[in-house]
Specification:
Oligomer: heterodimer
Distance between the termini of chain A: 33 Å
Number of domains of chain B: 1
Number of strands of chain A: 15
CATH superfamily of chain B: Ubiquitin Conjugating Enzyme
Strand content of chain A: 5-15%
Shape of chain B: globular
Number of helices of chain A: 19
Distance between the termini of chain B: 34 Å
Structural class of chain B: alpha+beta
């Protein structure tokens, strides 16, 4: 144990240590030292969130915002794909496939306003000022365009409204759509706008809606790894990949299977069907607990175990008097045995999973109790002033309980027949199982120890004893963290890494808990950020950028950001309290 | 609301050269949203000489939504259901454009009769036959054209009888299938469309 002390984890061993970059809040150890790479996108920051991607495409291809958007929607908001297609197939094909038509000089068919034009859709003669031609050159009357747009918006095709001409694949100018539709139906225009903006969330593998119920209205964007766990601003922690609760070290597939299994308790039902027979009189399931094939129910009815039919009570070891039936005993017994074994196996894993899950349900209460004890100690005149070791220990306890809890369904599938039966021989499986279970048991033992110390009634102890507990808690905090890390490494390298067929991605272990997505700043009118200058100079270099927006203070925050200035600022300003706690707790603190 | 002024113009425009184009549209009483189209079978195909009736219904969003078309005359064709006349054609679905008209749609149907697309079938049985036993397919299609798409004095019963006693030359399974199908079809058909399709 001692060798963990004074190692590279000064962080934990020295409670007075504090990062000079961070402020002095008591829970600083649990804050993210650098800004989290995932971002919360709110309704307000949705436009802002996509601006960086738009700008990159606009700058490179000298495009208007709407053309850039069309390209990005077509390529599911993957800027790299857009660039790759550009290099591979050239500009013309890139534009053609996405339905972007760039006109060199826009010449609206605007002859004398008095002249009449025939619209090919309604077949009426229309004054030339009431027709609109798209970038592709097709020209129809405004009424028909509007009608077309509304039909398409209603069909849910706002993101790809094509020109009305037959076989024309050009995507209509969003500005024209906006203007014409809002003149007819303002609500519809708003819907169009929303659909267009929400494409960034719905057609983008890096962005997902927060799965909270009721929905908080936010979406989360991750930067690189989509197999990760994030925490939304609303407090919900979820697996980004499958949008269900955070479940690592279980893979998404394992978790899905596990949830389903827990829900229908199929094992129990299975066991009952195989191991019992309904009594022919009272219909209760009856289990045979040995003896011959004459079974008697608690209601007093005797029946034949083999065929389930009611019989009299007279019998010998081999036959029931007056009763005979064919028997396929062997097969049935094997089946029963298998079902029973499967059930016991499931129960083993489920019980442990449940036990840890239940104990982290009590976290909130425990946290309050500990807080009370701390205040008692603080009011006492003693040498002990700093209790961050205790809060740290507590959060480490919560964190590792989660890891432990989800490690059971993981083990259930890792060493069961459902997923990897053909991947490992029985011997290999056994070796791996032993390896994993060793780690799991070590972790479990230490978590329990940590739990015991954290829950001691130290407020009633003398200082020396508290100091002793302090040492233990600090030690165990470090150890459990290391053990969690090791367990993840074992899963990654020794268990899943060697598999040939199946790929199971596990969200990586983070000592500090599930990463909390940071808020994207919403467009502000005055932003005293030196960073801004680089943003506006960047936009000035790209000819097609809407200067009005960028110069009014919309910084580019993400990938385009060359320095880490922004990151530091956010780390200081934004939520430092990065706990692995349910939302209610965070709200309270 | 259907754009009736356009529909009226379309009717005039389409029927102006029906002699040349081989397609025409007629009204179904006063209701402009329910029309019926006629196309002649393309020369050099098993449909040659036949006249095919198509039921046309215009949705409220017409011409911004595609018209609904269905063969009333029974046709043996991979992209047209032999049971109910439903048509599998892209321009009647997602490839519809408001710039297309009823006339262009009917012309496309005519083109479909000359160039079936068995890889994207509406009627799997017909498509299979087209791909595997082309000659049988041609025979059946021609027979159906003779029976259902030509003006005769024959009554419905007689036609059904004829269709049922005629057996294509090869696969007995197909024959069996056809027989069963025809009998069922004729019953339902008679109830709904017999005046339109069969009794001229």
């Amino acid at each position: 144990m001692g060798d963990f002390m004074g190692s590279d984890d000064e962080y934990y061993s020295d409670p007075d240590y504090s990062d000079p970059l961070e402020n002095d809040e008591e829970d600083l150890q649990w804050s993210t030292s650098s800004v989290s790479s995932s971002k919360v996108i709110t309704k307000e920051s949705l436009l802002e969130a996509q601006r960086e991607d738009l700008r990159r495409v606009m700058d490179l291809l000298k495009l208007s915002e709407q053309h850039a958007r069309t390209l990005l929607i077509h390529h599911r908001w993957d800027v790299e794909t857009v660039f790759a297609v550009l290099v591979e197939k050239g500009k013309e094909q890139l534009f053609g496939e996405a339905g972007v038509t760039v006109v060199e000089c826009k010449s609206y068919a605007s002859p004398k306003s008095s002249s009449m034009v025939t619209c090919d859709i309604c077949m009426d003669d229309i004054p030339a000022r009431e027709v609109t031609s798209m970038d592709c050159g097709h020209c129809f009357c405004n009424t028909c365009w509007t009608e077309h747009f509304i039909v398409k918006i209603n069909e849910g095709q706002s993101r790809r409204i094509r020109c009305m001409a037959h076989k024309c694949t050009a995507i209509c100018d969003e500005e024209v759509i906006r203007n014409l539709v809002s003149a007819r139906d303002a609500d519809m225009a708003e819907r169009f706008e929303r659909f267009l903006l929400e494409s960034y969330i719905e057609d983008n593998k890096r962005v997902k809606w927060c799965p909270s119920v009721p929905h908080c209205g936010n979406a989360i964007r991750v930067e690189d790894d989509e197999f990760c766990e994030v925490e939304c601003a609303c407090g919900l922690q979820f697996c980004f990949s499958c949008s269900s609760e955070a479940h690592s070290p279980c893979s998404c597939l394992m978790w899905e299977l596990w949830i389903k299994k827990c829900r229908d308790e199929s094992e129990t039902v299975n066991w009952i069907t195989v191991n019992t027979k309904p009594c022919p009189k009272c219909h209760k399931p009856v289990e045979k607990n040995g003896g011959c094939n004459l079974v008697s129910c608690i209601c007093g009815q005797a029946f034949c175990w083999l065929c389930g039919g009611a019989t009299g009570r007279d019998h010998t070891w081999s036959s029931i008097s007056g009763h005979s039936c064919g028997r396929y005993k062997e097969e049935r017994e094997k089946q029963a045995e298998r079902a029973k074994r499967d059930l016991y196996r499931y129960m083993h894993y489920h019980n442990r999973y449940k036990a840890h899950t239940d104990s982290f349900k009590l976290e909130t209460k425990l946290k309050e109790t500990i807080q009370e004890r701390i205040s008692v100690l603080e009011s006492r005149d003693s040498t002990l002033k700093d209790f961050s070791w205790l809060t740290n220990g507590l959060y480490r306890l919560f964190r590792s309980r989660r890891v432990l809890s989800y490690s059971y369904p993981f083990a259930f599938y890792m060493f069961g027949d459902d997923l990897f039966k053909d991947e490992m021989t029985l011997e290999v499986r056994e070796i791996k199982q032993n390896l994993f279970e060793d780690q799991q048991q070590q972790l479990e033992a230490n978590v329990e120890k940590l739990s015991k110390f954290v829950e001691e009634q130290f407020d009633q102890y003398p200082d020396e004893k508290v100091m002793e507990i302090r040492m233990q808690v600090i030690n165990l905090t470090v150890i459990t963290d290391k053990l969690c890390k090791k367990m993840y490494e074992c899963i990654e390298n020794d268990l899943l890494g060697s598999l040939q067929l199946a790929t199971h991605n596990i969200a990586p272990y983070k000592s500090k808990g599930v990463e909390r997505a940071s808020e994207l700043p919403v467009l502000r009118t005055n932003c005293s950020d030196s960073y801004l200058q680089s943003s506006s100079s960047r936009s000035a270099s790209g000819g097609t950028v809407e200067l009005g927006l960028s110069s009014s203070g919309s910084p580019n925050f993400e990938s385009g950001c060359p320095s880490r200035k922004r990151a530091k600022r956010e780390a200081l300003g934004a939520a430092l309290f990065d706990l692995n706690l349910p939302a209610e707790v965070i709200d309270k603190s | 609301m259907v754009d009736f002024s356009r529909v009226q113009k379309e009717l005039v425009e389409c029927n102006r050269d029906k002699g040349i184009s081989g397609v025409s549209i007629t009204l179904h009483g006063d209701d402009l949203s329910h029309l019926s189209g006629t196309i002649t079978g393309p020369v050099g195909t098993p449909y040659e000489g036949g006249t095919f009736q198509i039921d046309i219904r215009l949705p409220d969003g017409y011409p911004f939504e595609p018209p609904k078309m269905q063969f009333l005359t029974k046709v043996w064709h991979p992209n047209i259901s032999s049971q109910n006349g439903a048509i599998c054609l892209d321009i009647l679905k997602d490839q519809w454009s408001p710039a297309l008209t009823l006339k262009t749609a009917l012309l496309s149907l005519q083109a479909l009769l000359s160039a079936p697309e068995p890889d994207d079938p509406q009627d799997a049985v017909v498509a299979q036959q087209y791909l595997r036993e082309y000659q049988t397919f041609v025979g059946t299609a021609r027979y159906w054209t003779e029976t259902f798409a030509k003006r005769t004095t024959m009554g419905t019963e007689e036609k059904v009888k004829r269709a049922c006693t005629w057996l294509p030359s090869s696969s007995s399974l197909t024959q069996f299938y056809l027989l069963g199908r025809l009998e069922i079809n004729m019953e339902t058909k008679e109830k709904t469309h017999d005046i339109l399709t069969l009794n001229y």
